[in-house]
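Sanity check

After download, print the first record. It should look like this:
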Amino acid sequence: MASTAETLAADDRFLAAILHCADQMLTIYRESPRIASIFAAQQRWLMAHAGFALHYGHPDDGKSGLYSGRFIDFAVRNDIASRNTAAAFMQEMLAYRFLRPVPGPDKRTRYLEPTETAEQHFTRWLVAHLMILDSLDGGERAAKVSADPSAMMAAIQPRIARAIIGSEAVRNPGPTFNLFNWANTGGLVMDYLISRLPEFPRTAERVVVGPLSLREIREQFMISNTHLKRLLTQAAAMESVGWTEPSRKGDFWLSRRFILEYWNYQAAKFAIIDAAAEAVLGPAVREEPQARRMV
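Expected structure tokens:
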């Protein structure tokens, strides 16, 4: 049986899992900033999932095929983006050559498909998450997907997309998470902050992560000084982040509430991915559980 979000969140090994996930997203960004920009804000991430799912065949729709009108209607209907934003996203993906025109059943409609580059990076995203699930229970999901990546992506990704788009826990984990994840590049900044966690004792109201270089963040993620300071100022006003000394001096800290928002979001997302993988691959061969509940 697939892991539940509650089971994952209670597993004391899950901190290492989400830190590894944050590192993976940062690695993808460093290697390919354009493709990683799709994962850098929730709206773009949801639109990317929607596009792939429509291309492969969305589980709630009996047909497959991606074209602008269908994508825009889907994005609006599922409260992902406005018509203008969805249309601009499609044009951007074409300009970046993550989408390309292909022949379709209706010659009056311009059908599109993900390019090899887009599919490879999305497959990498899926395999990275499956590897983390495998590390928790000894399963072999990642190896099975890697053996036939195109077919496995086509089967698994639409299930993930449907569940993610319909999940309140994934789409609205909490105010601080939403602050970062709906801002341009904010998701990457959040991943970076979380990746600095040395540990997470759940009884601690704050966890100190050490000195924070705003210059390093700006240069690494190509974010403006104004945008970065605005994000951190808003998060500090929510008492979600801060410094141990006045005027942004001393060590940087993250609040327990902020960490739990990120933690529970990851648990919900990984549970969705596990359920989708199990539906296609069958139950994972699991080791005897050795998890201990966090206190």
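If your output differs, re-run the checksum step. Summary of this record's structure: Residues 288-295 have pLDDT under 50 and may be disordered.
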